[in-house]
Structure formats: structure tokens, C-alpha cells
Amino acid sequence: MTLPEQLKVERPLDVGEVAEFLRIGRGTALALLQKGEIRARKCGGQWRVTLDALREYLAACDNAPKSTPRGARMPKEVAKS
């Protein structure tokens, strides 16, 4: 039995597909899944991730640095604001 096209589009992705979608390495994708940073399930020992979970992860990403590295100084124009 073949899946209808709609179900093929909505099917969960594996680690390799997650890496490709996010344009990161497979090891990095696996680490994100293992840390729970991306909502996912293990099925038969393999990770499965929905597109909605990847979209949630991307929406939650923030480009702003959480803190400055030890010994680093903020630029003067940033420190004044």
C-alpha cells in the first residue's frame, strides 16, 4: 500500500532529514534531539520529528548572545543603551 501524497508530506522526519532541513550536520541534529531541544520521539530506536516541531524550534531560536564570553567586553554603544 502506498501513502497518499498528503501523508508523505506530513510524515515524521529522521535524523538525516532533520539535519538537511536545518542545514546542520547529522551529529549536531542528533545532539539537539538527545538534549530535548527539538521535540521528538523515538520509534523502534530511531528518532522521528514532525515539521511542526522543527518550526517550533526555529521560532524559539534567538540570534542574540545569551551573555558575553568571559573576559570579553561589550561595545561601548551597546553598553550605553
Task: Give the helix/strand layout.
Layout: H1 5-10, H2 15-22, H3 26-35, E1 41-43, E2 46-48, H4 51-60, H5 76-80
Antiparallel strand pairs: 1-2
Helix pairs in contact: 2-3
Q: How would you sum up this structure, described in words?
A:
- The protein has 81 residues and is mainly alpha-helical.
- It has one domain: Arc Repressor Mutant, subunit A (Orthogonal Bundle), CATH 1.10.10.
- The protein has helices at 5-10, 15-22, 26-35, 51-60, 76-80; strands at residues 41-43, 46-48.
- Strand 1 and strand 2 (46-48) form a beta hairpin.
- Helix 2 packs across helix 3.
- The N and C termini lie far apart (62 Å).
- The model has no long low-confidence stretch (mean pLDDT 82).
- What characterizes the major β-sheet? 2 strands, antiparallel
Q: Could you name the ranges where pLDDT drops below 50 across 5 or more consecutive residues? A: none
CATH topology: Arc Repressor Mutant, subunit A
The DSSP helix count reads 5
Gyration radius, in Å: 18 Å
> Helicity range of the residues?
40-55%
CATH architecture: Orthogonal Bundle
Termini gap: 62 Å
Strands of the widest sheet, in order across it, are 1-2
Structural class: mainly alpha
Quick one: CATH class? Mainly Alpha
How many structural units, i.e. domains? Answer: 1
Silhouette: globular
